[in-house]
Amino acid sequence: MVWQYSRRDTKLLLLATLMVASSYALLLAHDLRQPSVSTGALPAAIGVYAGVTENTVNTYMASLDQRAQQLDAREAALNAQAAAANGTDQRTLWWVAILGAGLLGLILLNFYLDHKRRFSFA
How many Å apart are CA 105 and CA 52, to the nearest integer? Predict the structure, then answer.
């Protein structure tokens, strides 16, 4: 048997379903934030250190890493300069677009008035 609901019943059913789903999601998210073990002490972190003796490859890699950091810094400076210049370019572009639209409007107005004048005298 197919149940038939009115619009009001459908809205209430949808609202109730959303409320139940959202409350379940909030409860689940709240439970995930709580630590599962409540001993009061956090487990100690264990670290491992491994060292490699210096050789030519290590020194080349260190110099390449340093060079990459310098290049990244220069790239960030260039991007900042380009962003500063882009603001004035955007403003100029907006002015050109506004003036171009105005000129296009004047040209279309001219064609309309010419057309109107041509057929008004005929």
Answer: 73
Query: In this predicted model, what pLDDT tens digit does every residue of 63-96 receive, in sequence order?
Result: 999 999 999 999 999 988 887 776 666 777 888 8
Q: Is the model's pTM score more than 0.85?
A: no
Distance (Å, whole) CA 55 – CA 40: 47
Number of residues that make up the chain:
122
CA distances from 33 to 3, 5, 27, 29, 41 (A): 41, 40, 10, 7, 16
Distance (Å, whole) CA 13 – CA 16: 5
Amino acid at 55: N
Contacts of 52 (CB under 8 A, 6+ apart): 58
Tokens in use for 43? 């487990």
58, 52 contact by CB (below 8 A): yes
Q: CA-CA distance, 49 to 42, in Å (whole number)?
A: 22
What is the rounded distance in angstroms from the CA atom of residue 62 to the CA atom of residue 54?
A: 11
